[in-house]
User: Fold this.
Amino acid sequence: MGVLAYAVAGWLVIVGALGMLRSRNLVQATVALSVAQSGTYVFLLAIGYQWSATAPVFSSGSPPTNQVVDPVVQAMALTDIVVSAMVTALLLALTIQIEKTHRTLDPDELQRLKG
Amino acid sequence: MNRRARLSVFGLGAAGLAVLFALALAGMPDFGTSDHPYRDLAVPAAVAHDTANVVSSVNFDQRALDTLGEEVILLSAVVGATALLRPTPHETQRPPAPGGRVLDGTILMAYLLLPLTTLIGLDVVVHGHLTPGGGFQGGVVLATALHLLYLAGRYESLARLRPLDWYVWVEGSSAASFAGIGLVGLGLGSGFLANVAPHGSFQNLLSAGTVPILNVVTGGAVAGGAVVLLAQFLNQALGTTPQAAQKSAG
Amino acid sequence: MSAALIVVALTLVAIGGATVVFTTDPARQAVTLSVFGLLLTLLFFVLQAPDVALSQLVVGAALVPLMVMLTVRKINQRSR
Assistant:
């Protein structure tokens, strides 16, 4: 069962890369990149998990204890999510510009438009 | 190379990656292990600074420099998208489109949910050091609350009720305040972005020093940034007329 | 109990990822991406990460699909 979490993370990265490869449209490629990046979030959180541990937030009902899941990888995943969204936004803006100048969004077509 | 060749090369690469990944996993601790050295260091440090939400403590107190870098990334992405999505000289401002109807139920829901979502966003931002949440999450919730106006009416009403200069100003000044608070820490003899405000007592609203202040500042920056970013996309998709379909010079 | 929940959430995420990638129409991909974001939120919640789950929900289920839909609309507008 432990292998399943890491396997799903690897599967998401590979499926995202396959999507970028098979795409007929730059928007499809951008969405596939987004899927590949979510594989890294799953990987980070899988590293930090501990059986029967709670979330790293303390309240009057749960006093401070060391038996919580790892908060450092959660902070990393948070930064990861924000940066991925910004990259996706910039890629989509670039896609709009490419469509304005080249009138096509097929990656195979775009390869031939040189010079 | 054609698609078939590309897919076969990908197949080889993916197989190699899977093998290497499996080999690497064999040397890692098991899933769900109780051996987490970073956690054993981060949690006592957060409790020592009276922060109930350890992830917020890591983000805004122990590794605040990374969050400043993230703010700069957000700012640069918004600037980049604004520069890329400027309307070309051929694209003119679109006159309000006639027709279109919004269901009364949708209008009612949007008007009910707008103040509610704004309050929830403010709550998530302000209580970031006590409950799960914080500046980023609350900031985006505030930005989506504003765009409920678009759901309830037309794009033109949203554009009239959303003076973009205000949001640009809020975003820029909030990002600058983040660095400014860091410099205060430097000026008081500690490090850059050190937690120099009074710590208060655990689980009170006024606790954890600079963490709630940085949360509010980040919330403002993210909300302003998200509104400006979405405004560029909305303007391109809904606010400008399409270029005529002919081979233009551009 | 929690092990079963984690297994179910992981399987749903794996299926969701494949669904997003193998959707052909970009406009439909925006909707599938939104649902995938929701499944990821559930997974992060089950893995005891509420901060990350909140972040993924607002960004991956609201912000990014909206931008994808606006991009698709802009592109289809011009090629009509």
